[in-house]
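[Help] Beginner question about ligand-bound structures

Sorry if this is basic. My supervisor gave me a protein sequence and a SMILES string for adenosine-5'-triphosphate and asked me to "get the holo structure". I don't really know what that means in practice or what format the answer should be in. Inputs are pasted below exactly as I got them.
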Amino acid sequence: MSGYIAVEQASVLSGDQVLLAPVSFSLDAGKALAVTGSNGTGKTTLLRVLAGRTPPTTGSVAIAGEPTNERSSGFRARMAALIGLPPLARNLTPREHLVLVATSWGSKIVDGENIADRLLDEFGIIRLKGRFPHELSSGQTQLFALALTLARPFEVLILDEPEQRLDSDRLELVGSVLRHLVEDGKTLILASHSNILVERTSDEVLTLTDASYDLHS
Ligand SMILES: Nc1ncnc2c1ncn2[C@@H]1O[C@H](COP(=O)(O)OP(=O)(O)OP(=O)(O)O)[C@@H](O)[C@H]1O
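Answer (accepted):
No worries, everyone starts somewhere. Holo just means with the ligand present. The predicted complex, written as structure tokens, is below.
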């Protein structure tokens, strides 16, 4: 199967347990795919496979022709993912976290500071830049985690339920930030239970069920 992202009959099993039933799809670069479906149908598992964190038990998964594998530096350079909250340092502010990530991916400090301020502003949390992570609300923490995920270069963005903990205004804000990223040429795959976010961000929808899937535009 061709496509910038190519998934062919990928499944994940753990003993007798099916974590992800076989699924196939392809996605062009610069497009957004929403993965939807009931609880337990394998959305997070599929994202973990795409992010190279879980190998598929069957089938194949490739991004830009390369099998997904978090241990490959070339693969890691392409992929930014937020699947659960990232580890946070208690004694670093949100701005310091973002500068740390940006500079660790090659930005000069001044550029890292600009990236940090731009992202904190885009996600509406610039006034919180000097707090510590434990001084943020759960929704603010989610916005901070999203900003932190974007603080490094990437071609593909993978997000698991980015709507978590967000009020309706912040949901619109995140939808708008994500759509702009796609319009700028990034490839986005998100799992979501939010119809609003799916409608705002996605070109295609992949709906998982326990034993099959449905792909539509
Ligand atoms: N480590 C694991 N070992 C065994 N089974 C697991 C493991 N992790 C998840 N599962 C099972 O795999 C299936 C898919 O889980 P997954 O988290 O991918 O679903 P999901 O679609 O993301 O669900 P939700 O909408 O609730 O987030 C579920 O039945 C779950 O119980």
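A couple of things worth pointing out: The chain has a mean pLDDT of 95. The helical segments are 43-50, 73-78, 94-104, 109-122, 138-149, 168-183, 195-201. Feel free to follow up in the thread.
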